[in-house]
Task: inverse folding
């Protein structure tokens, strides 16, 4: 158990350094995303150490955010331990996103199955983007775009089992 705690502590320290470097750059996730030609949500995942920085992108990221230490750039290029701290559920925005899925999830599931058949939306081959728009009354509104690959469930016939 202590090993996991050390890994968690290291990841938390890395994320803190990355966010400090981002803050020092004065750039937003949107600006960094534009500079890297990536989605803003993917760039945020890189800074949360939830996605792997590819070597070809590391140089461009270093130019945009020069405060990222070389050792941290190398750490970002390792396959990350994707995880989350369960206390994140206490953060109001995260709680509301989960609440949205609790309310809309079954309807979305049925609509996707009706449109595509039995299957799921990939969380691996998924593009996520966050946009800000103005509502009819001039209020700020959040648009979350999730563009995921459909993965059909297959009938498991013995003849197709390659194991």
Result:
């Amino acid at each position: 158990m202590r090993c996991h705690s050390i890994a968690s502590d290291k990841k938390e320290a890395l994320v803190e350094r990355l966010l400090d470097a981002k803050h020092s750059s004065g750039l937003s996730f949107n600006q960094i995303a534009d500079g890297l030609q990536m989605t803003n949500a993917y760039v945020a995942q890189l800074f949360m150490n939830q996605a792997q920085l590819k070597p070809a992108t590391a140089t461009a990221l270093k130019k945009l955010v020069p405060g990222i230490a070389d050792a941290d750039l190398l750490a970002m290029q390792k396959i990350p331990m994707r995880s989350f701290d369960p206390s994140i559920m206490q953060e109001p925005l995260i709680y509301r996103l989960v609440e949205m899925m609790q309310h809309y999830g079954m309807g979305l599931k049925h609509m996707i199955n009706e449109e595509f058949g039995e299957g799921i939306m990939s969380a691996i081959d998924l593009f996520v983007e966050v946009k800000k728009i103005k509502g009819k009354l001039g209020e700020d509104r959040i648009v979350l775009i999730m563009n995921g690959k459909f993965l059909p469930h297959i009938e498991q016939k013995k003849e197709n089992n390659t194991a």
Notes: The two ends are 34 Å apart (CA to CA).
